[in-house]
Amino acid sequence: MPTSIPATLIPGDGIGPEIVDATLAVLEALKAPFAWERHVAGLEGVKVAGDPLPEATLASIRRTRLALKGPLETPSGGGYRSSNVRLREEFQLYANLRPARTIVPGGRFDKIDLTVVRENLEGLYIGHEHYVPIDGDPHAVAMATGVNTRQGSRRLLEYAYEYAIANGRKKVTLVHKANIMKALTGIFLETGLELYERKYKGRFELDSVIVDACAMKLVLNPWQFDVLVSTNLFGDILSDLVAGLVGGLGMAPGANIGADAAIFEAVHGSAPDIAGKGVANPTALLLAAAMMLDHCKLQELAARLRKAIDETLNVDLVRTGDLGGRASTAAFTQALVARIANG
Ligand code: NAI
Question: What is the pTM for the complete model shown?
């Protein structure tokens, strides 16, 4: 095991600092060798450094190429541009990986084990938006441009196909809307089919589905899917849907992967409604930390962390309110640390 892995830590906004503290305590119990550089972003960045993505934070990630991040608040409508989107652009984090696995059985769906791989840089999220004024109404018409490139689609699809093979996945499903957005999402579908034929045929099963039908099928029979790959907007929506299948946002981790940097986070936001109350579920960020350990080739620590989370939730039955339990963030963290110490 390496003695020290420099990594950037962004506690973030709302419940961010609470779940980051919990995650740090657990990583310390595991003796994970991260040497943290703590930095601000989001609303905290605006408050402390007058910038939602301060240069010092960017410089740290440029050095470490590795970050664990709490949720960052983004104002809706006006205000500054999402720091999350800017981080993805700055470090060309083209793949967003969101695994969803049932940990707490007995929910609406059991034994779910799905991964959504979402394109993270292109599509309708590139931020090319403007208004057209008419008759004195400055916002009479709103317009957005989506851009998908063959090269961007190919590198994401290649990542997803390699991920499927490396993780022993049986099937990959391309999710698109090429019947309506024939160019914008047609290029993604076409590139995925071509890449499979040329390089991956027979190594896993490939199929495709239109995004609206995919949403319905996921709710009716999620077990028919294995790895779902999609463009930015559809992937964003479907990964929240999939998080809902396994007990909600409190259980869903995410990784943003680029050619030479990776940022790990919970899928959920800053949860302002429960911030500061000490009741947030840190599991999603803990699972993101497990993905980070895997990424750093510390699979043994990652496996111990996942096992301890599983046992705390299902053997000790210590659960936070979002999972129907009564444990505070601190009590859950304590139980998890005890599991690690005794395991
Ligand atoms: P949200 O994910 O913060 O909250 C949605 C609901 O889920 C709330 O009722 C919240 O209490 C609950 N929830 C979320 N995480 C939880 C946890 N760990 N434990 C227990 N309950 C949890 O979504 P919302 O309210 O739409 O967004 C709030 C802010 O977060 C916005 O400013 C948004 O831009 C930002 N956001 C940031 C993300 C990121 O940094 N990756 C991702 C999504 C939203």
Answer: 0.92
